[in-house]
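Q: What would this chain look like folded?
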Amino acid sequence: MAFSVVMPALEMAQETGKLLAWRKKEGDRVAKGEPLLDIETDKAVVEVEAPADGFLAGISAAEGADIPVGQTIAWIVEAGENPPAETSAVAPAARVAARSKPEAAHVSPARPGASVIPAASAKVSPKARRLAKQLGVDIALLRGTGPGGEVVAADVEAASKPGDLSADAASHDWAKQGQAGETEVPTSVGRIMAERTTQSWTTVPHFFVSRDVDATGLNEYRQRAGGEIERGRGIRITHTDLLAAVVARVLLKHPRLNASWSEGGIRLHGHVNLGIAIAVKDGVVAAVIHDAQAASLAEIASRRSELTERARAGKLRPADISEATFTISNLGMYQVDQFSAIITPPQAAILAVGAIADRVIAMDGNPVVRPMMTLTISCDHRVADGARAAMFLGELAQALQRPEQILS
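A: My prediction, written as C-alpha coordinates:
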Protein backbone atom coordinates (compact mmCIF):
# COMPACT_ATOMS: atom_id res chain seq x y z
CA MET A 1 0.00 0.00 0.00
CA ALA A 2 1.35 3.42 -0.98
CA PHE A 3 1.41 6.25 1.60
CA SER A 4 1.48 9.84 0.37
CA VAL A 5 3.94 12.41 1.68
CA VAL A 6 2.23 15.80 1.71
CA MET A 7 3.18 19.35 2.60
CA PRO A 8 1.82 19.64 6.17
CA ALA A 9 -0.29 22.47 7.54
CA LEU A 10 1.10 23.73 10.84
CA GLU A 11 -1.23 26.66 11.39
CA MET A 12 -4.60 27.97 10.26
CA ALA A 13 -3.24 30.70 7.98
CA GLN A 14 -0.47 28.67 6.35
CA GLU A 15 -0.80 28.36 2.58
CA THR A 16 2.56 27.01 1.46
CA GLY A 17 5.77 25.53 2.78
CA LYS A 18 9.25 25.76 1.30
CA LEU A 19 11.02 22.44 0.78
CA LEU A 20 14.54 23.03 2.04
CA ALA A 21 16.08 19.56 1.78
CA TRP A 22 15.29 15.90 1.25
CA ARG A 23 16.94 13.66 3.86
CA LYS A 24 16.48 10.63 1.58
CA LYS A 25 16.87 10.00 -2.13
CA GLU A 26 14.50 8.35 -4.61
CA GLY A 27 14.48 4.63 -3.94
CA ASP A 28 15.96 4.83 -0.41
CA ARG A 29 14.47 2.70 2.33
CA VAL A 30 12.78 4.74 5.07
CA ALA A 31 11.36 3.86 8.48
CA LYS A 32 8.25 5.36 10.03
CA GLY A 33 9.18 8.32 12.23
CA GLU A 34 12.57 8.76 10.55
CA PRO A 35 13.45 12.32 9.42
CA LEU A 36 12.47 12.55 5.76
CA LEU A 37 12.67 16.21 4.73
CA ASP A 38 13.10 19.74 6.05
CA ILE A 39 10.56 22.45 5.29
CA GLU A 40 10.32 26.13 6.08
CA THR A 41 6.94 27.57 7.05
CA ASP A 42 5.69 30.90 8.34
CA LYS A 43 6.90 29.80 11.78
CA ALA A 44 10.18 27.96 11.51
CA VAL A 45 12.35 25.37 9.84
CA VAL A 46 10.70 22.03 10.58
CA GLU A 47 11.83 18.43 10.30
CA VAL A 48 9.12 16.19 8.79
CA GLU A 49 9.08 12.49 9.61
CA ALA A 50 8.21 9.58 7.32
CA PRO A 51 4.55 8.52 7.74
CA ALA A 52 5.25 4.81 7.12
CA ASP A 53 7.88 2.14 6.48
CA GLY A 54 8.90 1.46 2.88
CA PHE A 55 10.80 2.99 -0.02
CA LEU A 56 10.74 6.63 -1.11
CA ALA A 57 9.33 6.99 -4.62
CA GLY A 58 7.61 9.44 -6.94
CA ILE A 59 9.34 12.58 -5.64
CA SER A 60 7.59 15.48 -7.36
CA ALA A 61 9.07 18.52 -5.62
CA ALA A 62 12.59 19.89 -5.79
CA GLU A 63 14.55 21.47 -2.98
CA GLY A 64 13.86 25.19 -2.84
CA ALA A 65 10.30 24.89 -4.19
CA ASP A 66 7.28 26.49 -2.49
CA ILE A 67 4.58 23.84 -2.17
CA PRO A 68 0.87 24.41 -1.42
CA VAL A 69 -0.29 22.85 1.83
CA GLY A 70 -1.81 19.41 1.30
CA GLN A 71 -0.09 18.74 -2.02
CA THR A 72 1.48 15.29 -2.43
CA ILE A 73 5.22 15.61 -2.98
CA ALA A 74 6.28 11.95 -2.79
CA TRP A 75 5.13 8.45 -1.93
CA ILE A 76 6.32 5.69 0.36
CA VAL A 77 5.75 2.33 -1.27
CA GLU A 78 6.44 -1.33 -0.56
CA ALA A 79 9.22 -3.26 -2.27
CA GLY A 80 8.40 -3.70 -5.97
CA GLU A 81 5.41 -1.32 -5.75
CA ASN A 82 5.11 1.71 -8.02
CA PRO A 83 3.70 5.07 -6.93
CA PRO A 84 0.36 6.12 -8.47
CA ALA A 85 0.73 6.63 -12.21
CA GLU A 86 -0.22 10.30 -12.21
CA THR A 87 2.53 11.11 -9.72
CA SER A 88 5.18 9.27 -11.70
CA ALA A 89 4.10 11.03 -14.87
CA VAL A 90 4.42 14.55 -13.52
CA ALA A 91 7.51 14.11 -11.34
CA PRO A 92 10.15 15.05 -13.97
CA ALA A 93 8.17 18.07 -15.10
CA ALA A 94 7.67 19.19 -11.51
CA ARG A 95 11.40 19.18 -10.87
CA VAL A 96 11.99 21.33 -13.92
CA ALA A 97 9.19 23.74 -13.05
CA ALA A 98 10.53 24.27 -9.55
CA ARG A 99 13.76 25.73 -10.96
CA SER A 100 12.37 27.52 -14.00
CA LYS A 101 12.13 31.29 -14.16
CA PRO A 102 8.85 33.17 -14.73
CA GLU A 103 7.85 33.52 -18.37
CA ALA A 104 7.48 37.27 -17.97
CA ALA A 105 7.19 39.89 -15.31
CA HIS A 106 4.00 39.63 -13.19
CA VAL A 107 3.25 36.10 -14.48
CA SER A 108 3.91 33.07 -12.26
CA PRO A 109 4.78 29.64 -13.69
CA ALA A 110 2.03 27.04 -13.44
CA ARG A 111 2.79 23.88 -11.53
CA PRO A 112 2.22 20.62 -13.42
CA GLY A 113 -1.22 19.24 -12.78
CA ALA A 114 -2.49 22.50 -11.27
CA SER A 115 -5.51 24.19 -12.77
CA VAL A 116 -4.69 27.59 -14.25
CA ILE A 117 -7.39 30.24 -13.95
CA PRO A 118 -7.00 34.00 -14.52
CA ALA A 119 -6.91 35.84 -11.24
CA ALA A 120 -9.80 38.03 -12.26
CA SER A 121 -12.14 35.03 -11.93
CA ALA A 122 -10.18 33.01 -9.36
CA LYS A 123 -9.83 33.23 -5.61
CA VAL A 124 -6.92 35.18 -4.16
CA SER A 125 -5.64 34.27 -0.72
CA PRO A 126 -5.46 37.13 1.82
CA LYS A 127 -1.71 36.67 2.19
CA ALA A 128 -1.22 36.82 -1.58
CA ARG A 129 -3.27 40.01 -1.78
CA ARG A 130 -1.24 41.69 0.97
CA LEU A 131 2.05 40.57 -0.53
CA ALA A 132 1.04 41.79 -4.00
CA LYS A 133 0.34 45.24 -2.58
CA GLN A 134 3.71 45.32 -0.82
CA LEU A 135 5.66 44.15 -3.89
CA GLY A 136 3.69 46.16 -6.48
CA VAL A 137 2.45 43.09 -8.36
CA ASP A 138 -0.76 43.32 -10.41
CA ILE A 139 -2.90 40.38 -9.23
CA ALA A 140 -5.12 40.63 -12.30
CA LEU A 141 -2.20 39.40 -14.44
CA LEU A 142 -1.37 36.39 -12.28
CA ARG A 143 -2.29 32.78 -12.87
CA GLY A 144 -3.16 30.88 -9.71
CA THR A 145 -1.39 27.61 -8.98
CA GLY A 146 -3.10 26.84 -5.69
CA PRO A 147 -6.06 24.51 -5.15
CA GLY A 148 -8.81 25.32 -7.65
CA GLY A 149 -6.61 27.89 -9.35
CA GLU A 150 -6.30 30.08 -6.24
CA VAL A 151 -3.57 32.72 -6.35
CA VAL A 152 -1.25 32.06 -3.40
CA ALA A 153 1.73 33.91 -1.97
CA ALA A 154 4.21 31.82 -3.96
CA ASP A 155 2.63 33.06 -7.21
CA VAL A 156 3.11 36.68 -6.14
CA GLU A 157 6.71 36.09 -5.06
CA ALA A 158 7.53 34.41 -8.36
CA ALA A 159 5.94 37.26 -10.29
CA SER A 160 7.93 39.87 -8.39
CA LYS A 161 11.28 38.45 -9.48
CA PRO A 162 12.98 40.02 -12.53
CA GLY A 163 12.25 38.04 -15.67
CA ASP A 164 15.91 37.78 -16.67
CA LEU A 165 17.13 36.42 -13.33
CA SER A 166 17.35 32.65 -13.09
CA ALA A 167 16.55 30.79 -9.89
CA ASP A 168 20.17 29.67 -9.53
CA ALA A 169 21.46 33.21 -10.00
CA ALA A 170 18.93 34.54 -7.50
CA SER A 171 20.03 32.01 -4.90
CA HIS A 172 23.61 33.29 -5.09
CA ASP A 173 22.61 36.97 -5.08
CA TRP A 174 21.94 36.89 -1.35
CA ALA A 175 23.89 39.97 -0.37
CA LYS A 176 23.90 43.40 -1.95
CA GLN A 177 26.58 45.96 -1.30
CA GLY A 178 25.33 49.37 -0.32
CA GLN A 179 27.02 52.71 0.19
CA ALA A 180 30.08 53.01 2.44
CA GLY A 181 30.60 49.25 2.54
CA GLU A 182 27.16 48.49 3.98
CA THR A 183 25.80 45.01 3.31
CA GLU A 184 22.15 44.06 3.04
CA VAL A 185 21.57 40.41 3.91
CA PRO A 186 17.93 39.43 3.39
CA THR A 187 16.91 36.20 5.13
CA SER A 188 13.74 34.20 4.73
CA VAL A 189 13.33 33.95 8.50
CA GLY A 190 13.60 37.71 8.87
CA ARG A 191 11.15 38.27 6.03
CA ILE A 192 8.66 35.85 7.56
CA MET A 193 8.94 37.51 10.96
CA ALA A 194 8.40 40.92 9.37
CA GLU A 195 5.31 39.73 7.53
CA ARG A 196 3.79 38.03 10.55
CA THR A 197 4.41 40.84 13.03
CA THR A 198 3.16 43.44 10.55
CA GLN A 199 0.00 41.44 9.96
CA SER A 200 -0.61 40.97 13.68
CA TRP A 201 0.12 44.58 14.60
CA THR A 202 -2.12 45.99 11.86
CA THR A 203 -5.07 43.59 12.23
CA VAL A 204 -5.21 42.64 15.92
CA PRO A 205 -6.39 45.35 18.37
CA HIS A 206 -3.61 45.12 20.95
CA PHE A 207 -3.68 46.49 24.47
CA PHE A 208 -1.12 46.03 27.24
CA VAL A 209 -1.27 45.60 31.01
CA SER A 210 1.85 45.52 33.20
CA ARG A 211 2.50 44.55 36.80
CA ASP A 212 5.58 44.45 39.03
CA VAL A 213 5.93 41.14 40.86
CA ASP A 214 8.00 40.24 43.93
CA ALA A 215 10.14 37.26 42.83
CA THR A 216 11.38 36.31 46.31
CA GLY A 217 9.18 33.22 46.49
CA LEU A 218 10.02 32.26 42.93
CA ASN A 219 13.77 32.41 43.62
CA GLU A 220 13.45 30.42 46.83
CA TYR A 221 11.33 27.73 45.17
CA ARG A 222 13.81 27.46 42.32
CA GLN A 223 16.69 26.96 44.74
CA ARG A 224 14.80 24.44 46.87
CA ALA A 225 12.62 22.37 44.53
CA GLY A 226 14.70 23.11 41.44
CA GLY A 227 17.82 21.98 43.23
CA GLU A 228 16.20 18.68 44.18
CA ILE A 229 15.12 18.04 40.58
CA GLU A 230 18.57 18.93 39.23
CA ARG A 231 20.31 16.58 41.67
CA GLY A 232 17.81 13.75 41.18
CA ARG A 233 17.24 13.90 37.43
CA GLY A 234 20.06 16.01 36.08
CA ILE A 235 17.60 18.52 34.60
CA ARG A 236 18.43 22.21 34.94
CA ILE A 237 15.47 24.27 36.12
CA THR A 238 15.29 27.84 34.79
CA HIS A 239 13.04 30.75 35.69
CA THR A 240 11.30 30.22 32.35
CA ASP A 241 10.44 26.65 33.37
CA LEU A 242 8.94 27.84 36.65
CA LEU A 243 7.00 30.60 34.91
CA ALA A 244 5.68 28.15 32.34
CA ALA A 245 4.46 25.72 35.00
CA VAL A 246 2.74 28.43 37.03
CA VAL A 247 1.29 30.32 34.05
CA ALA A 248 -0.21 27.14 32.56
CA ARG A 249 -2.10 26.41 35.78
CA VAL A 250 -3.30 29.97 36.32
CA LEU A 251 -4.53 30.19 32.72
CA LEU A 252 -7.09 27.44 33.36
CA LYS A 253 -8.92 29.92 35.60
CA HIS A 254 -8.84 32.64 32.93
CA PRO A 255 -10.17 31.02 29.73
CA ARG A 256 -10.49 34.31 27.81
CA LEU A 257 -6.69 34.61 27.81
CA ASN A 258 -6.20 30.99 26.76
CA ALA A 259 -8.35 31.45 23.69
CA SER A 260 -8.26 32.01 19.93
CA TRP A 261 -9.99 34.51 17.68
CA SER A 262 -11.50 33.54 14.34
CA GLU A 263 -14.16 34.88 12.02
CA GLY A 264 -16.60 32.54 13.73
CA GLY A 265 -15.93 34.12 17.11
CA ILE A 266 -14.01 33.24 20.25
CA ARG A 267 -12.74 29.71 20.82
CA LEU A 268 -11.94 28.76 24.42
CA HIS A 269 -9.40 25.99 24.99
CA GLY A 270 -9.72 23.42 27.76
CA HIS A 271 -5.99 22.72 27.74
CA VAL A 272 -2.89 24.91 27.69
CA ASN A 273 -0.46 24.42 24.81
CA LEU A 274 2.22 26.83 25.91
CA GLY A 275 4.47 28.49 23.33
CA ILE A 276 7.96 29.39 24.56
CA ALA A 277 9.74 32.02 22.45
CA ILE A 278 13.24 30.78 21.57
CA ALA A 279 15.93 32.89 19.93
CA VAL A 280 17.44 31.18 16.88
CA LYS A 281 19.72 32.38 14.12
CA ASP A 282 18.11 35.33 12.32
CA GLY A 283 14.89 35.25 14.33
CA VAL A 284 12.62 33.82 17.01
CA VAL A 285 10.47 30.69 17.02
CA ALA A 286 7.79 29.71 19.52
CA ALA A 287 8.15 26.02 20.37
CA VAL A 288 5.13 24.46 22.07
CA ILE A 289 4.82 22.47 25.29
CA HIS A 290 1.52 20.66 24.82
CA ASP A 291 -0.82 20.15 27.80
CA ALA A 292 1.51 22.19 29.99
CA GLN A 293 -1.20 22.51 32.65
CA ALA A 294 -0.83 18.79 33.43
CA ALA A 295 2.97 18.58 33.21
CA SER A 296 5.25 18.59 36.24
CA LEU A 297 8.02 21.13 36.61
CA ALA A 298 10.61 18.48 35.70
CA GLU A 299 8.64 17.50 32.58
CA ILE A 300 8.32 21.11 31.46
CA ALA A 301 12.05 21.72 31.97
CA SER A 302 12.92 18.57 30.04
CA ARG A 303 10.61 19.45 27.14
CA ARG A 304 11.79 23.06 27.04
CA SER A 305 15.44 21.99 26.94
CA GLU A 306 14.78 19.47 24.17
CA LEU A 307 12.78 21.97 22.11
CA THR A 308 15.49 24.61 22.50
CA GLU A 309 18.16 22.23 21.22
CA ARG A 310 16.06 21.20 18.23
CA ALA A 311 15.10 24.79 17.42
CA ARG A 312 18.70 26.01 17.38
CA ALA A 313 19.76 22.99 15.32
CA GLY A 314 16.95 23.64 12.80
CA LYS A 315 15.36 20.25 13.54
CA LEU A 316 11.95 21.15 14.90
CA ARG A 317 9.10 18.81 14.03
CA PRO A 318 5.61 19.90 12.94
CA ALA A 319 4.14 19.06 16.36
CA ASP A 320 6.81 21.20 18.04
CA ILE A 321 5.38 24.47 16.72
CA SER A 322 1.68 23.75 16.22
CA GLU A 323 -1.50 24.45 18.19
CA ALA A 324 -0.12 26.92 20.75
CA THR A 325 -2.87 28.59 22.79
CA PHE A 326 -0.70 31.11 24.72
CA THR A 327 2.93 32.26 24.49
CA ILE A 328 5.60 33.38 26.96
CA SER A 329 8.49 35.57 25.80
CA ASN A 330 11.22 35.97 28.42
CA LEU A 331 14.01 38.50 27.83
CA GLY A 332 15.16 38.57 31.45
CA MET A 333 18.37 36.73 30.60
CA TYR A 334 19.27 39.72 28.38
CA GLN A 335 18.82 42.13 31.32
CA VAL A 336 15.73 43.70 29.76
CA ASP A 337 13.63 45.37 32.45
CA GLN A 338 10.31 45.54 30.59
CA PHE A 339 8.89 45.15 27.08
CA SER A 340 5.67 44.53 25.20
CA ALA A 341 5.34 41.55 22.84
CA ILE A 342 3.27 41.24 19.67
CA ILE A 343 0.51 38.63 19.70
CA THR A 344 0.80 35.55 17.47
CA PRO A 345 -2.64 35.07 15.84
CA PRO A 346 -4.97 33.35 16.38
CA GLN A 347 -3.83 33.37 20.02
CA ALA A 348 -5.50 35.97 22.21
CA ALA A 349 -2.51 36.91 24.39
CA ILE A 350 1.23 36.75 24.99
CA LEU A 351 3.16 37.34 28.23
CA ALA A 352 6.39 39.37 28.17
CA VAL A 353 8.79 38.76 31.08
CA GLY A 354 11.52 41.15 32.19
CA ALA A 355 14.63 40.58 34.26
CA ILE A 356 14.61 39.86 37.99
CA ALA A 357 16.56 42.63 39.70
CA ASP A 358 16.81 44.12 43.17
CA ARG A 359 14.68 47.23 43.63
CA VAL A 360 13.75 49.43 46.55
CA ILE A 361 10.03 49.16 47.25
CA ALA A 362 7.73 50.29 50.05
CA MET A 363 6.57 47.56 52.45
CA ASP A 364 4.50 48.42 55.52
CA GLY A 365 5.58 52.02 55.11
CA ASN A 366 9.29 51.21 55.07
CA PRO A 367 11.78 51.00 52.20
CA VAL A 368 13.01 47.45 51.57
CA VAL A 369 15.01 45.76 48.84
CA ARG A 370 13.30 42.93 46.99
CA PRO A 371 14.03 40.97 43.77
CA MET A 372 11.37 42.32 41.41
CA MET A 373 10.34 41.62 37.82
CA THR A 374 7.83 43.23 35.47
CA LEU A 375 5.27 41.16 33.60
CA THR A 376 3.42 42.66 30.63
CA ILE A 377 0.55 40.89 28.95
CA SER A 378 -0.50 41.82 25.41
CA CYS A 379 -4.15 41.01 24.70
CA ASP A 380 -6.49 40.92 21.72
CA HIS A 381 -9.29 43.32 22.68
CA ARG A 382 -11.78 41.30 20.64
CA VAL A 383 -11.32 38.43 23.09
CA ALA A 384 -10.37 39.96 26.45
CA ASP A 385 -10.61 43.31 28.19
CA GLY A 386 -8.47 45.20 30.65
CA ALA A 387 -10.26 43.87 33.72
CA ARG A 388 -9.70 40.24 32.69
CA ALA A 389 -6.03 40.93 31.96
CA ALA A 390 -5.59 42.65 35.33
CA MET A 391 -7.24 39.79 37.22
CA PHE A 392 -5.00 37.27 35.45
CA LEU A 393 -1.85 39.23 36.35
CA GLY A 394 -3.07 39.60 39.92
CA GLU A 395 -3.59 35.87 40.39
CA LEU A 396 -0.34 35.11 38.60
CA ALA A 397 1.55 37.48 40.91
CA GLN A 398 0.12 35.72 43.97
CA ALA A 399 0.96 32.29 42.56
CA LEU A 400 4.55 33.33 41.83
CA GLN A 401 5.01 34.49 45.41
CA ARG A 402 3.98 31.03 46.67
CA PRO A 403 4.59 28.65 43.74
CA GLU A 404 4.56 25.56 45.98
CA GLN A 405 0.83 26.00 46.51
CA ILE A 406 -0.06 25.74 42.84
CA LEU A 407 2.68 23.29 41.80
CA SER A 408 2.24 20.76 44.59
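Residues 40 and 94 are 19 Å apart (CA to CA).
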